[in-house]
Amino acid sequence: MATIKEVAHEAGVSVATVSRVVNKNGYVSEERRVRVVEAMRHLDYKPSAVARSLRRQESLTIGVLVPGIHQPFFAALAFVIQKTLFASDYRVLMCSSEEDASKEAAYVDMLLHQRVDGVIVAPTGHGSETIHPLLSRMPVILVDRDLPDLALTRVLADNFRGGYDAMTHLIALGHTRIAVIGGPPYSRAMEQRTDGARRACADAGVVLDSSMVLMSELSEFKMGFELALDLLRRHPRPTAIFALTDVVAVGVMHASAELKLSLPHDLSVIGFDDIPLASYIIPALTTIAQPIERMAETAARLLLERLKNGVNESFETVTLDMKLMQRASTAAPRGS
Q1: How confident is the model at residue 126 (pLDDT cuts 50, 70, 90)?
Q2: pTM for the full model?
Q3: Phi and psi (nearest 5°) for 202?
Q4: Where are any strands of DSSP class E within 145-264?
Q5: Ordered domains of the chain (ranges, CATH)
Q6: What is the pLDDT of residues 136-145, one digit of tens each?
Q7: In whole angstroms, what is the distance from residue 65 CA to residue 77 CA?
Q8: Rounded CA separation 140/120 (Å)
Q9: What order do you get walking across the sheet with 91-96 strand by strand?
């Protein structure tokens, strides 16, 4: 394995110049930087991450804390965050709180003891107390779920607008007997989607029956299945269901099949997230597409900027738009 001295000799520069190129600090002319990079490639030189971290007083490790890595949305979010950070020579400690505040607090404690350089967190939403200890120790970027009382940089999607657009789509098709299923109830994102749906109904003069707005802490598929069975056995039953996540929507579709209902003729279903499965199930799911990749890349980029620039007392909120993906699971109600 080549040494840093061999790279310096190959490039015709000092060891200090090679070190500045490797650690990306200090001035190096573009011509010398190119020579060093070419020498490293030619000699297959691999700088020691441990040595680099000691010199820079960094762990080169980032904590990523999400509510549930088993959920397709958070799995996709975490994957892109990890890929983006890896490309900048950072490694990731992945933590899944499973919507449990005590586990979230335990992972925060672990990340503090591991001396990670920063954290990207999608909180459970139970409260800000578990996340607060991180703020005085390292840069923290909040993603997807908001904790409004914390002073930090956040990357969010416009959940209110997404809920508004989903309900507006159903109303435009002619539906007036519409149910909403989602959870967990303490999630601010779920609350904002529901608020958007309520506003759309109010603007259109449609009454959203509060008895058909159901929130639960069940796992998403089970939530959609069991709550939809309850709704679809009522008389009259809803002609459309807005599921606040795509996995909930899949549960709703399974319940409708159990009751031998035809989608979208007997029931329209719209989801939220646009997970990869959404376009492959039958019928393909109409949904509100979250910009998952952009959200993850933006959160990672903002954290890397804060790590590079040092202490920064200013914070920003990046809010990303969503998009209605109209597919085969929604149509005008039968007889309209």
Answers
A1: confident
A2: 0.82
A3: -60, -45
A4: 153-157, 178-182, 213-215, 240-243
A5: 4-47 (1.10.260.40), 58-158+292-320 (3.40.50.2300), 159-290 (3.40.50.2300)
A6: 899 999 999 9
A7: 11
A8: 6
A9: 91-96, 61-66, 118-121, 140-143, 153-157, 317-320
